[in-house]
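Bug report

Summary: structure tokens for Enoyl-CoA hydratase differ between web form and batch submission.
Environment: batch mode, default settings.
Steps: 1) Submit the sequence below via batch. 2) Compare with the web form result.

Sequence submitted:
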Amino acid sequence: MRSTLYTAFRQHSIRCYSAATGAVNSHPPYKTLAVEASAPHVLHVRLNRPDKRNSITAEVFQELRECFDRIDECRHTRAVVLSGEGTVFSSGLDFSEMYTLISAGGWVISGEQVSRAPVDIAHNAKVIRKLAKQWQNSLNSIAECSKPVVAAVNGPCLGVGLEVAIACDVRHCSGDAYFSIREVTVGVATDLGSIQRVPKIMGNDSLVRELAFTGRNLNATDAFAHGLVSKVLPTGAETVGSAIELAKVIAGNSPEAVQGTKAGLNYSRDHTVREGLEFMVVWNQCMIQSQDLIKAAMATATGATMPPVFDDL
């Protein structure tokens, strides 16, 4: 009996190692991101521009979209941790890149020139809209990823950095982290998710409007008190460790159940209770027929010491 259990455990460990390796190998080398396997079925994605305080450029947006589209399609990945390399989660949009584009005589967006002079306002507006939609879709790829994403906010989280964090499902932060809807201080109305997602996360319309109108910082203590984060850790390293431990717990559960739960939460957030219930009935009438329910029920009924081993979805 002991030999059988050992053999099963060893085979499971080998499968998990192979799955983790396969999940990482499915990603090309990125210039602005780092991707590694932190545990079986858990990927750790890092914003990897520490010398620029992990500021967000057009290339970062593009690579985030590509990375999370791949994660969404990867059967081996069940949970993701997203953090910033170094001591800053993200300082927001890289304005040096934007300034370079503007000072060169105009903006070049997706190969199209945007003139500084209002020669053709309609054309300029069309091209700017195209850019904004691309950036929105990059962040939506995080929010809509079928795998839960845990943000480890290991330092300041400003502007677009906040919009990256709130696209995640769960947020842990370090004690020195602070958050800001910074766009109003640089002369633009935020259009990448802050004023759509933060009110639903925090539930305090008055505070959200105050933060959005002033651009002031929200410290870690207040972020926890108002529901923006679910856990505050003393240091950035402990924050990342906490996020990874949570992701490991998530990855140990049935991927069908976890992904169905995320789909239901996302759908129900923007629909009535009755519509949300109907959505889950339709989901479960298909997914509940899998082996995951049987495996979990058997493990519970028999008091198994080893957790059930679920197949990749």
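Above is the batch result. After comparison, the two runs are identical; trailing whitespace caused the diff. The chain has two domains: 2-252, 254-313. The first strand starts at residue 33 and ends at 39.
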